[in-house]
Amino acid sequence: MTIIRITKEFGFEMAHALMGYNGPCKNIHGHSYKLFVTVIGSPITDKKSPRQGMVMDFRELKAIVKKNIIEKFDHALVLNNKMPEDVVEKISESFENVILVDYQPTSENFLIDFVEIIKPKLPPSIKLYRLKLSETATSYSEWYAGDNR
Fold this sequence. Notes:
Elements: E1 4-16, E2 29-41, H1 58-73, E3 76-80, H2 85-94, E4 98-101, H3 107-118, E5 127-136, E6 139-144
Parallel strand pairs: 1-3, 3-4
Antiparallel strand pairs: 1-2, 2-5, 5-6
């Protein structure tokens, strides 16, 4: 059986601040993120299937990622939930889409979170292979299933 990887790219805008960081990223700032989601599986061989020859319909992968990640994080401000309560209150008074997470909102930690969101939503025959999250044109983090067994 042949194994194939397919990748779908997503773009979204998001702001964050790194609590306790000793550089400029401790301030609220935003990025134009690019998320690359790669899944792996065998192309469907059933000649009666409308998805014959596909590992997974790109529309289905798009729907999973869009609903569970893009719609939540696009144009959001993401902060560590350990931020001082008064700071979070003040920010939440002025901005609608403030997300508190239980981790430092780095691209590396976003990937760990995104893996846990995407994996259970995939069809049983499809495995998550790789996530790549680009924060800038020259900086990105990657997660590989093979590194995390």
